[in-house]
Amino acid sequence: MTTDRLMVLDLLVSVLAAAAWVGAGAAAAARRPRTAAALMAGALVASPARAGSVLALAGAGWWFVQEKVTIALPLLLTASVVAAVTAGPRLLAASRAASEAGRDAARSPAVVIPLLGAGYAAAAGPVQTFLLGYPAEPGSALILLAVVAGAVLLTWRAMTPRVPLLRTATASTVVAALAGGALTFLPATTAEAATPVVATAGAVAPATAEGGHDMPGHDMSTQASAPVRPVTDLRGPSAPAPGGTVRRFTLTARTATVTLSSGRKVAAWTFDGQVPGPPITAEQGDLVEVRLRNADITEGVTLHWHGYDVPSGEDGVPGLTQEAVPPGGEFVYRFVAAQTGTYWYHTHEVSDIGVRMGLYGMLVVTPRGSATTGVDLTLPVHTFAGTTVVGDHDQPVLQEVAPGTPVRLRLVDTDNTPHRFTLAGTVYRLVAVDGTDLSGPGPLSRAGLRLPAGGRYDLAFTMPSGPVVLRVDDRTEAVRLTTAANGPGNDDVTDAAAAAGWPELDLTRYGTPASTPYTSRSRFDRRFTLVLDRGLALGDGLPIYAHTINGRAYPHVPTQVVAEGDLVRLTVVNRGRDTHPWHLHGHRVLVLARDGRAPTGSPLWLDTFDVRPGEVWEVAFRAANPGLWMNHCHNLSHADLGMMLHLAYEGVTTPFHGGHGG
Ligand code: C2O
Ligand code: CU
Q: CA distances (Å), 150 to each of 22, 143, 535, 599, in order?
């Protein structure tokens, strides 16, 4: 069973156990000893069964069960034993008696309170998982115990108004709850001082305990020797690489009404009045210079080069690498186009809204001197005002292509959620992912390609004699390429329903292995683990129901600190019910393993990888691009609800104090 299924199963068992205990208590209170006994029998099956489901889940990793093993399960089992021992015999006697006296005996406090108490204890498990999440700490444990105790006391009180000990018990419950609250939220606020904005040498704690250990050579003395540089000094050069030219662009951010291909008009935030913004293209080695102006985006705007490893000062993160450009302001970005491939740019200020509203465009870099032969289409897919658009098309992109022409389709997902693509009518290859060419990509047909939010796939094929159709999410026809002869094409082209059933390509088994500069057996200088979940956490000032990283929400997630040259291993665990497209700025990461299995196909160098519910990804990167970087979920509304942190190189500082990261 997959980890995801096990999580669901465990949830089911825990809810069943809670329902059975509460049901037994309620039935007893209603003077129905037989029903109560039957429900209690059910509860006595479900409660130990929960131990089994937790144990099975533990096989996927401690992260998935930590709060269950340390708190929920002991609480459930203890309460079950107490209920069985105290209420059990009485209830059995009452149900055998089958008389009025038996019925009355069933509703005695000695029966009802332990049964309901076990119910509260059982319910505490799922409540803890959903509200408090990972990791369970003494504070959250105290709150939980206090809530369960409080519920028991209230029940007790309701059943027997005059119990002398009740006051003391209530008072201690309230104290426990308060102490728990303090323990939970105070560390988050005090961690503030150690968090993001200024990552001076040695001032910031690594994100996880393991990051701080076994790092010979990274003690305070070496940290102190890291040169102190403001991020604003880490800028691009002013000249291209030898043989390159300077490519100048000006992008003006402004609100505008955009006309889609169908004639439909949409209110948008745009670069130069269009969505997507003007494409930025260059040849490898060129110097790209982009002057960003803001006409009237009151929230402010920046340009972030998604997946492009620019110098940190050019990365466009407001409050970290620059201030957001206000209306009337401007900022000039410069970087050498060192990497070839398909990338995109987008605003990083209030990016959840900004990108959704249209502040994005394409960045494509081709190898120097590569003559453009054939058809090369860049196809950003975006959900715009409720419809799926490809570029500015809300109807299929139609193009006539001569048979035999080489075709390249560059798919880009600019949304918050993944899209599924199918290509019908031709055999093709997935030649590049996130801008990096794959090794030995084999021929594909009848495959579903799942593209993570923020990610890119390049597809290549030779135009056949019949039509070729690209579909998005098995409904929208995105592109239709036809030939003059207008051959009928094969069934795949016409049968959209069949395409919906094509199996999803597993990227970790596609292509052929090739050597990589490091592997999972390399010696890593730093290791960080990010456990993604939902839970109550302190956000920017107030507790929110956040998308959390190790139980914290931005800006309270400790910064990951690395030294230039470090080999860094990053483990990303998804304990929640949402998919998290993980995105580190400024570095491509090499996939070491997903759920413990190393890729068997091409090496995968990604800048955005989808961590689905229950998945564990191990990735690695060389810290070779000094600066201050965002590390976040590219479902930008998750990022907005806390799922972001900083990766900082020792010695790099920032003069900006916005700290919101966009
Ligand atoms: Cu494409 Cu920080 O984002
Ligand atoms: Cu997410």
A: 16, 10, 22, 50
* 455 Cβ below 6 A of ligand 1: no
Residue nearest to atom 3 of ligand 1 (CA): 306
Q: How far apart are the first and last CA of the chain?
A: 38
- What is the pLDDT at residue 134? 84
For the record, the structure tokens of 229 come out as 């540089």
Pair of tokens at residue 250: 């000006």
CA–CA distance, 29 with 41 (Å, rounded to integer): 17
Q: Is the CB of 547 under 6 A from ligand 1?
A: no
The residues near 442 (Cβ < 8 Å, ≥ 6 apart) are 429, 510, 511
DSSP secondary structure string for all residues of 13-77: HHHHHHHHHHHHHHHHHTT-HHHHHHHHHHHHHHHHHHHHHHHHHHTT-GGGTHHIIIIIHHHHH
Closest-lying ligand 1 atom to the alpha carbon of residue 317: 2
DSSP letter assigned to residue 285: T
Rounded to 5°, angle at Cα 124 from 118 and 130: 155
Q: Which SS3 state, helix, strand or coil, does residue 441 take?
A: coil
**Exposed, middle or buried, 193 (CB in 10 Å: 0-12/13-18/19+)?**
exposed
Strand, coil or helix: what is 522? coil
Instruction: Please give the angle made by the CA atoms of 598, 599 and 604, to the nearest 5 degrees.
Output: 120
Give 278's contacts (C-beta < 8 A, 6+ positions apart): 249, 251, 271, 272, 361
Residue 583, ligand 1, Cβ within 6 A: yes
Structure tokens at 437: 């060419």
pTM: 0.90
Which residues of the chain fall below pLDDT 70? Answer: 98, 163-164, 185-226, 486-489, 658-662
CB 304 less than 6 A from any atom of ligand 1:
yes
Segment 309-339, tens digit of pLDDT? 999 999 999 999 999 999 999 999 999 999 9
Give the pair of three-digit tokens for residue 157. Answer: 């009180």
Pick the residue whose CA is nearest to atom 1 on ligand 1.
306
Joined together, the tokens standing for residue 265 give 């008009």
Strand, helix or coil at 47? helix
What are residue 456's DSSP bridge partners? 412
Q: 117 CA to middle of ligand 1, Å? A: 47
* d(CA 270, ligand 1 centre) in Å: 17
What distance lies between CA 28 and its chain's CA centroid? 45
Integer angstrom CA distances of residue 590 from 484, 515, 619? 43, 12, 5
C-alpha span between 335 and 384 (Å, rounded): 30
CB atoms < 10 A from the CB of 82, how many?
15
Contact call for residues 626 and 315 (beta carbons, < 8 A): no
Ligand 1 neighbour 647 (Cβ under 6 A): no
**Residue 541 has which token pair?**
């000032």
Could you say which ligand is closest to the alpha carbon of residue 579? 2
